[in-house]
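Lab notebook: predicted structure, single chain.

Context: the supervisor wants predicted structures on file for every construct in the current expression panel, including those that have not yet been purified. This is the next one on the list. No modifications to the sequence; it matches the entry in the shared construct table.
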Amino acid sequence: MSTSKRSSKRGTSTSAAERPRPDAIDAMILKEDLRIADVHPHKDLDLLVIVLNSGDVLQARISDFDRLSTATETQLKKWRLIGGGLGLHWKELDEDLSLKGFIRESPTRSA
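Prediction complete. Output recorded below exactly as produced.
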């Protein structure tokens, strides 16, 4: 029995060995079914608080993101979830940020 699977591209196939394996953060997100549930930007504190469906809270500095750092408080509050909660999008700012990136860069992760 072959381990090859058909790719979505016509005429190509990928073997199990060729597919990239998820890294530790991807594996954790998948295993724990983590998603972003809410976001609270605080421009005056240079703080973006990311609340996960697990109850965990991640923090990021707004100033670490060029497009967010120049945004108004009103613009920062106009975000939406993308990828079923795996990312955030600010249409007006043309900015997309991922849960994976927040987990990787967050100085604190607490329950």
